[in-house]
């Protein structure tokens, strides 16, 4: 290095390139060059370069402080990442914990992002210093490089924190997935509940599944069972106290009741109040539901049937039954009917009609066992001289007379027999007018005599509906 001797400020000084480069703080000159300055100019240059160096150094200090300050949030960001990682672990627990971790991670992300703003501000300051030091100064350039490195380092924790946020967010999404699935399941369950509720409420709608209810069902409105698609081997409605039921014997079972095993199955209808009673009614019509027509003679209106199990099966038709039958073609004014009784004879499975109760007669198709005969409630009258026999009402009568008496007949019934026992309490013979024509009596007269304290038996038999077709047999 050359030695400079300064005598005057304005004296020109010759320096080799290396010395000048040293003074000018790194200005690159060829080593063979000679630079000439006045002394004052040289001193001014030295002071100027020194000032620039001072500014550049100040910028470096500020940038370094920014780097230190930016490095601090990196630690914070690392702690946030640890918290986020802990949140990720906790995220496998219910969604609520994951949500809390998400909140913490988000706060950490915000906190970690804050130093990035600070570093950006430091970069702005360093850049300003760079601009000031943009004179040919290697130191200023180095300060810029250091400041830029500080900015990169300061920005690094933001990236790390952002990665932690991404991980925490992924953990939140993963933890929230079961909640979403559970929510979807809840939506489906709620939909099923709404459908079931619609089916049970007074609303329209169709429930297409199987509904099993283990408790009681209270219906405060009208319950309608509309089903025409049930098979011939099942009933539209089944009430069962057993795990399984016997297969129906016929198609068209609307109600099938299977009672408890070993216990009598009871169907009870209670009625209360004056004039109230239990009613079991069967309605029938020809035609269709939308266009019914009148029943015709011998149509079955209703049937009560009983059936028993044989060797391998129930019989398809009841082995004993009662039929309610139309006795004529029905109109609104004429509805003659009869009740027919059917049984299977011993040793047979063929039904026979044994009796028909008509509107005014009873017809027995089989033999009537006379071992006990028919028991009638006798109609016993006090002492009278006038007695009316009503064929529609009377069967067996007893009267006592103390004077001559007359018997009149009314309401003749074809095939009806009425028996009369007459006693005489007058102490003398009395004359009885029997009420039939003379030639329709065993006395061939319209009267007969009962001796004192005697009696007589009179049997009336009507084969028509008037006096001319009524006969009386007299035993006196």
Keywords:
single chain; alpha/beta; 4 domains; 4 helices; 20 strands; 34% helix; disordered N terminus
What's a concise summary of this model?
With 476 residues, the protein is an alpha/beta fold. Helices cover 34% and strands 21% of the residues.
Dominant shape: rod-shaped
Uncertain parts? 1-13, 23-40, 46-53
H/E topology pattern? EHEHHHEEEEEEEEEEEEEEEEEE
Task: Give the terminus-to-terminus CA distance.
Answer: 189 Å
- What is the beta-strand fraction? 15-25%
Helix content: 25-40%
What count of domains describes the coordinates? 4
Major sheet strand order: 7-8-9-10-11
Radius of gyration: 63 Å
- Alpha-beta classification: alpha/beta
Query: The biggest beta sheet, please?
Result: 5 strands, antiparallel
SS elements, strand count: 20
Mean pLDDT, as a whole number? 76
If helices are DSSP runs of H or I spanning 4 or more residues, what is the number of helices?
Answer: 4
Describe this structure in words.
With 476 residues, this protein is an alpha/beta fold. It has 4 domains: 12-184, no CATH class; 231-268, no CATH class; 295-375, no CATH class; 379-475, Jelly Rolls. 34% of the residues lie in helices and 21% in strands. It has helices spanning 17-23, 39-91, 95-132, 138-200, and strands spanning 12-16, 34-38, 237-240, 255-258, 286-287, 292-293, 300-306, 320-326, 337-343, 352-357, 362-364, 379-380, 386-390, 396-401, 405-410, 417-424, 430-433, 447-450, 455-462, 470-475. The strands form 6 sheets. A 5-stranded antiparallel beta sheet has the order 7-8-9-10-11, with no helix packed on it. Strands 12-14-16-19-20 form a 5-stranded mixed beta sheet, with no helix packed on it. Residues 1-13, 23-40 and 46-53 have low confidence and may be disordered.
